[in-house]
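Predict the holo structure. Ligand: guanosine-5'-diphosphate.
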Amino acid sequence: HQENSRTPNKQTDKFIGGLLSPSFDEESCLSRYRSALFRKDSPHLPSSYLIERLRKYEELHKKCGPNTPLYHKSIIQLNLGQSIELMDCNYLVWTPFNGLGNRMLTIASAFLYAVLTNRVLLIHQTVDMVDLFCEPFPDSTWILPPDFPIKNLTKLYQGSETSYGNMLKNKRIKDDVSVPSNSLPAYVYLHLEHDYQHLDKFFFCEKDQVILQKINWLLLQSDIYFVPGLFLVPQFEDELRWMFPAKETVFHHLGRYLFHPTNTVWGMITRYHTAYLAGSDERIGIQVRVFSRNPISAENYLKQILMCSQQENLLPEINMNRTLNPTKSTMKSKAVLITSLYPEYSEKLKSMYYEHTTVTGETVSVNQPTHEVQQQTERQFHNQKALAEMYLLSYCDVLITTGWSTFGYIGQGLAGLKPWILLTPRDQKPADPPCTRAVSMEPCFQVPPTYDCRAKKNADLGALVRHVTHCEDVEQGIKLV
Ligand code: GDP
């Protein structure tokens, strides 16, 4: 199963080389077939096997999705309180946790896990997530119906009695692959958050996957991109290799397959893109995220950004003597898109290019759609703006992102670009070196397990498995290359 090497013509291109099903009504979700046209053609086409698996998944989802007889049958089974062998449909219920970038990474991870294990992925949609994404699967819905019998899904946490780790600890689940389905609970909660414990991490072990396969319903709460962890599980190896002959394209393909901004968000994206970005010869996205655990002044962080840009030759240098050199003037224009919670970065950069000519003669416009000041994940409109900005970043030709930020991971993954990653500032000073080029466009799995299930001892999994390496921004993290 080789990567599909044919060049797409404009007609197939809107379906991204067959990644998208053509069975949707275009008007109800304009972004679905138009978003890819805002970018240069991706050199990474989906493999024919991935396309086959996606169509197969869509069939399963249609058969088992909400409001089908098989879904109702499964709800009856859930209410019985125990798992049943050979049910027609098994489910994975995703619940939201943390910011939108984290959520999108975990939806993509959950979806891949659902495909690998023949489960149907359902999304517990809280009010802050309404009107963000279109339905990704034709003739069905991925939204968990509100009358789902398990309540308080957002209250699940490390200590929940129903978590896989706690069930193992309390011997509610026997650590034995031959355990029959009917002795297993109807559902189990997978706690895959950054604070997950040793027994929760058994999720990435071969034997535990055999047990989990017998449980009809899985609930998942996570804030980490755990896809690289799925590559550590032996029974998924072959499928993953066939689906993704180029490992670093996993999120690139899954993100473009799953996430389609609704018409409300698409309106914001296209209005901004047309007004501020489309007219330039080149677009440079700079994603500025300042984490409170590593504070730095706007002045110093901008210094770091400019050091990075100078070192890597990303933004035109300015001419310090301010005089116009008529022979150097070209018609070339660059648009810088800054995304940040704070206005200072674009204000300062804008003044810099207003007050000085560039040594190349290029003109530089500096644009920033919003400056929300504070993260407000519980507000729907705030999330819509965040989503719009991730998309705008993904239409850039060059990206500078902030290390550790999942917001940036989404932009780079959708774009299919290896960004320059700003390294974490220390002691309020710019990091030195200021940035490093990403080795792949994949997001980082920031908190991977450190337990080698086969050898039954701790190990550096970043060094153990092919196609997995340590992240540039997160030392203990791992990513696909
Ligand atoms: P991370 O915390 O950087 O890994 O990214 P998340 O997306 O998970 O959480 C950060 C949240 O803060 C975003 O989802 C937004 O709600 C908000 N935020 C951070 N940076 C920006 C930005 O540049 N623009 C906008 N509109 N919101 C931002």
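The CA atoms of residues 99 and 377 lie 6 Å apart. Residues 10-245 form one domain.
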